Amino acid sequence: GFEWSAAFPTHSLSLCLSLYFGFLSSLRTVSLLQPAMAQVVEDWYKQMPVITRSYLTLSVLTTVGCALEVISPYHIYLNSDKIVKHYEFWRLITNFFYFGRLDLDFLFHMFFLARYCKLLEETSFRGRTADFLFMLLFGGSLLTGIVLVGGVLQYVSQSFAKILFLSNSLTFMMVYVWSKRNPHVHMSFLGLFTFTAPYLPWVLLGFSIIVGSSPWVDLLGMAAGHAYYFLEDVYPLMTGRRILKTPGIIKALFPEDNVVVSRPANANAWGAAAGGQVRAPQEFQRG
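Request: output the structure for the sequence above.
Response:
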């Protein structure tokens, strides 16, 4: 006759039952963790300053939209002919939101965008959202001008013609400005060696060359970042005059918050350069 123990041994039944209940337990654990993880991500996103959150959101939506073929990269890349002849002016803006395919490189750039854009907006530009937005507009305009003008020059036109999106260059500009304003921060590259923050752009440039990427994208970002750093931080200290001034229309959109600024050692020089208003590049506390 039919023997249960021979057809399906007792220890096998016990094993199956233990696996089944273990699977149910893991499902309960995941179901409990999912709301908590979702809440952590939601809190992290909401705590981002407004410009960082907006730029990161538009970048992710644009890149994912292109990956899902909702929109086409051919409709948003920087093309001077289509801008001038076909009046497709949106290309001047949309090319800053596309970061390529959804791969490790995309995650790498999203990390740098979220980290250094957030650090700048929360430290150097804390309470000065309008000035931070103006910095991005200045950098974007300078990068666009360099690429469009450089595209007609004989020696660089070939290299610049391959640059269709300036999103990576704008991110690199923010990294450069942050590194110049935090000269004493110590960093490590993959645990191989340590360096101070001002060398970060050069380390990343060297890494790009090693992995076979074009250095032009990073060099453009460094050029734009250095131009802003010189005109905003160095030139006023040298001459007592400020060239870069945030337009009133942008200041009207983002009123300045009241902040308590820790006075640096060279506060008098900094204050004189800023027209009597004491400004510190790093340490801020909300009042």
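The longest helix spans residues 10-46.
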